[in-house]
Write a structure and sequence with these properties.
about 400 residues, Rossmann fold, 2 domains, five-stranded parallel sheet, globular
Length: about 400
């Protein structure tokens, strides 16, 4: 049995119920080949239920919320000593101390995008570096404003390697003076292989518009109800003015952030329409296959849109963050027409207008993706070589 000290450890993985997280780890495991891998996860059951169990060993992290005595003890300890890293030593106890690994890979690409997870990322990096290991911030996006904060700049300098997945983050890192440990590669999920799955008989390949909406974009809207209203009107427009079908495709199934809740609300009123389908939960590879069969894709989740882009499907992102803007800019040279910021939605037919523009330029967009994707996906694969170099130096 290979010990932790002989493995590459992937951490800050919330669980495969977020199929974007699953896609990152799945693709990364294939890039790493025969390097022994251990995934430290917040939810082992999710990872075993989908595609990861055969690709790496899986260890569930310690969770103080699930252990009341530890919760109390560690909070008291921190209150007295101000030792914030004690939380991380408890959380990752199985891969620290005598079990320290040579290399830790932070696979939570957008941990620095949200205030609630940013502190976790900083503390984890500091804890692993203090143990003497190398750390990699893998396939990340970071809001440029954040890189003006001294604590974050210092944290970035601790990483052995940072691989920003889009140019907005790359430029922000450079502007902050963080260059020596930075190398640009597209998101690892661009290299994800789809897995063929059975489609409903009424799914018309090449004549179906894939649609994804998430609770998060509803939270970011500035006008109550405007996001769902735009989506409903878009579906009505597709059904009334085209002969295309509509596929409602979830991509995150976490209890407090579940696409199926928003999609079921959107589906209400279309249940009896043969041209509208609501897909169930399944693995990231199967979801990518379904998306790949669509004529076009309108999506809120970053990795649902990555599945579409990498399958050469013309895509409109209903976005809210640097991730969406940066990837669109790298693929098309601009964000306009390719990203519709949910924060800016004011009119109930803005999504229809954006969709109609996408359809008018469908052939040009598809041709652009055909030209761009082979080298772009190959570059995403090359990131694995950087990890293997660090692994050889550290093992």
């Amino acid at each position: 049995m290979i010990g932790v000290e002989e493995r590459l450890v992937m951490y800050l993985h919330g669980g495969s119920g977020n199929h974007g997280c699953e896609a990152i780890v799945n693709s990364t495991c294939h890039m790493l080949g025969d390097i022994p891998k251990l995934l430290v996860t917040h939810n082992r059951a999710e990872d075993e239920a989908y595609s990861l169990a055969s690709l790496c060993d899986i260890l569930e992290e310690n969770d103080m919320e699930r252990h009341f005595a530890a919760h109390v003890c560690y909070y008291l300890w921190r209150a007295v000593t101000h030792d914030a890293e004690s939380f991380m030593r408890y959380r990752f106890r199985g891969v620290l101390g005598r079990n320290r690994a040579p290399l830790y890979l932070s696979v939570g690409g957008d941990m620095y995008c949200y205030e609630t997870t940013r502190k976790e990322a900083v503390l984890a990096n500091r804890t692993f570096r203090k143990s003497g290991a190398a750390t990699v911030l893998w396939g990340c996006s970071i809001e440029p404003e954040l890189l003006r904060e001294p604590e974050i700049i210092e944290d970035m300098k601790r990483y052995t390697l940072i691989t920003p997945r889009e140019s907005i983050t790359l430029e922000a890192l450079r502007a902050a003076g963080i260059t020596e440990n930075v190398k640009y590669f597209p998101d690892p999920a661009f290299a994800l292989e789809p897995e063929e799955t059975e489609l409903p008989a009424r799914f018309a390949a090449g004549k179906t518009i894939g649609i994804n909406i998430s609770p998060m974009i509803v939270q970011y809207e500035q006008k109550d109800g405007i996001a769902l209203d735009n989506y409903r009107r878009l579906i009505d427009h597709i059904l009334r003015d085209t002969d295309n079908c509509v596929a409602l495709i979830p991509h995150v199934m976490w209890r407090n952030n579940d696409d199926r809740i928003t999609l079921k609300e959107l589906y209400r009123g279309y249940e009896g329409n043969e041209r509208v389908m609501l897909f169930p939960d399944m693995s990231c590879r199967r979801l990518k296959y379904i998306i790949s069969q669509c004529k076009a894709f309108i999506g809120a989740r970053t990795h649902a849109t990555i599945a579409a882009y990498s399958s050469l499907v013309p895509t409109l992102v209903v976005g809210y963050s640097v991730k969406a803007r940066g990837i669109a800019r790298d693929l098309f040279g601009e964000e306009e027409h390719y990203v519709l910021p949910v924060q800016a939605l004011e009119d109930a037919e803005e999504l229809i207008q954006a969709f109609d523009w996408l359809m008018r330029h469908e052939q040009q967009i598809a041709e652009r993706l055909r030209e761009k994707m082979p080298s772009y996906c190959a570059l995403a694969q090359e990131a694995g070589g950087e990890l293997r170099k660090i692994w050889q130096e550290r093992k």
